[in-house]
Task: structure prediction
Amino acid sequence: MSQQSPTPEIPSPKADPVNVQSASSVSAQRKCVIDVAQYGFPRLLVLHLVPGALATLAYLALVPLAVRLQFPTMAALLFSAALSLVPLEMGHLLLQGKKLNGRWSLAGIVLYRRDWLGWRYLVSSVGLLILSIAGYALSLPLDRFSRAAFSWLPAWYVFSDVRQYAQFSRTVLVITFSARLLLDGFVFPLVEELYFRGYLLPRMSRFGWGAPFLNCALFSVYHFWQPYNLPTIFFVSLPMVLAVWKTKNVRVGIYTHILLNTVGCITTLVEVLGHS
Result:
């Protein structure tokens, strides 16, 4: 019986650090992608911008009525947004939920549903508010260029100019800003965060860390009724959008958006009443 010679050992190849790093990078990128169908860019463009465009058209149509009733044009904007943005965005979400679940539900449609203890929302919202104020300060130089570019717009279109409110009575101003506090302070932020961050942001997650920047940019352009504020909207919203992307928690965006709009409404009202 012949004896077999031992098989020589083949040294195992050393791990290639380049390949290891590449695999790690791919793994990190995959963690950013939510397991949901990704939308093509044309569809993302339409879903981000069409609601804002339609709301702006409704706003322009309602301005003569607001003028006739001796209300600021901002009242027309609030009314048009309530009649167009809320039904369009929530209606789209509910219709998608009906197709997916067979019932009127946001399950599987609005994602990023991680939850925290209440104190974490308070801390994160205040922290993001501070970052947004810093973003506002950074945007001021760009905002000057933006306002100059849109200086051809009529004065009534720039509703953030507090000087235009001096002609209205305090009663009218209180009614208008009370409606703004309710709608722009609570209703619109809730609907917009569910739509833009809970629904659209996960469906563009294939862009990796580019997704929150693209989402924020399109969200800024969506505000067709205030194009002169585009840089401000982008830099003020960016910390909130990045936080939602990082935490995968849409409630962070909801609470922060409510806080931002409420603070903005109250400070503007104080300034307006001080000039009236």
User: Anything to note?
Assistant: The helical segments are 17-32, 41-68, 73-101, 118-149, 170-200, 210-221, 230-247, 250-275. The CA atoms of residues 163 and 275 lie 7 Å apart. Residues 43-275 form one domain. The chain is about 70% helix and 0% strand.
